[in-house]
Amino acid sequence: MILGSAEPPAQPGVQQMKDPQPGHDMGKTMSNEYQLVDGSPRYGTRHEGKPQQTGPAQPLRVEETAEAATRLGLDDMAAAIDRRLDSAWADAEDPVVAALRKENPEELAAARALVQLHLGSQRQWRLKAQAVRDKQLAGTVARRKASGSARAILVMRLGLMAALIAPPAYIVATDQDDYLKLLLTGIICFAAAMIGGHFLTIRARVPVMPNIRGPWLSELREDVVNATLVAILQNKGVALDRRTIAAGRRGWESIQVAAKAVAALHG
Predict the structure, then answer these.
(1) What distance separates the 2 farthest-apart alpha carbons in the chain?
(2) One domain for residues 154 and 184
(3) For the whole prediction, is pTM greater than 0.70?
(4) Which single residue of 87, 165, 176, 251 has CA 20 to 30 Å from 228?
(5) How far is CA 162 from CA 98, 155, 158, in A?
(6) pLDDT averaged per 10 residues in sequence order, the chain, 267 residues
(7) How buried is residue 157: exposed, middle or buried, by Cβ count under 10 Å (0-12/13-18/19+)?
């Protein structure tokens, strides 16, 4: 037997593996295994062409804020007023907003006209809000009517009205010159109306109508005007920095937060 360094004969059908040559880059082999010829990954998601870029957000329609304000109810207004009074930013006029309004008088006038078109006067806006609230409470009122309590409350209201009208009418008919008696009777009837109305409100079990004060409602209206002004300027292509946009929309966004909270309470 002759001993040598010859390699054993290859088996049929079996491919022989050669030892890697010195200096062979194993990392390059593994890299090629997971990459295509163009360098993109072999596995996973590949994006062809240039990477997609996110464009700037589209500005709001100029009517959007005013239209949304018409859908506010009295409860939304009351919550928005409370939130505004409790916010430090509303204690004084923001100089950024004041400068924006001063520098764009034509756009400000257009914003006021647009808000006037959708909301109307203060009284008209309040009536629209009351209609929204009535619609929100329609289910509660329907339950009261179905249970018969609404009819009982109506009868008590009519009885209270008759009781309040009868004494002054009797005094006027019998002794209209006795002004002292008429004054005292009026005071007593007024007190009875307040007490009776409070009692009937409790018995009716319907949420109390919020008290919306005119000057505070005017502040909400100006918040709507400011947000509309920002939308008009953006749609005209006027460059506004983020601070100005945030200041102009801060009041309206506060109103939206309050309205969402009221909606969550109503379920």
Answers:
(1) 154
(2) yes
(3) no
(4) 87
(5) 55, 11, 6
(6) 44 46 46 48 43 47 93 96 95 94 96 96 95 87 77 84 86 81 88 86 79 94 96 93 95 96 86
(7) middle
- DSSP letter for 19, please: P
Number of structural domains found in the chain: 2
Token digits of residue 20: 């890697």
The answer to the question of residue 116 being in a domain is yes
Nearest-5° angle of CA 140, CA 141, CA 145?
120
Give the bridge partners for 35, in sequence order.
41
Cα–Cα dist 161/193, whole Å: 8
Quick check: 35 and 205 in contact, CB under 8 A? no
**Are 73 and 136 contacting, i.e. CB atoms less than 8 angstroms apart?**
yes
Q: Is residue 111 part of a domain?
A: yes
Show the tokens assigned to 225. 């005007």
Q: What DSSP assignment string belongs to 186-248? A: HHHHHHHHHHHHHHHHHHHT-PPPP---HHHHHHHHHHHHHHHHHHHHHHTT----HHHHHHH
Do 215 and 126 share a structural domain? Answer: yes
Three-class SS state of 10? coil
The conformation of residue 45, written as its DSSP 8-state character, comes to -
Measured in residues, the chain has a length of 267
Question: Pick from 111, 97, 104, 103: which is nearest to 229 by CA?
Answer: 111
42 occurs within a structural domain? no
Q: Tell me which residue range forms the domain holding 221.
A: 64-70+95-134+211-266
> What is the dihedral sign for C-alpha 24, 27, 32, 33?
positive
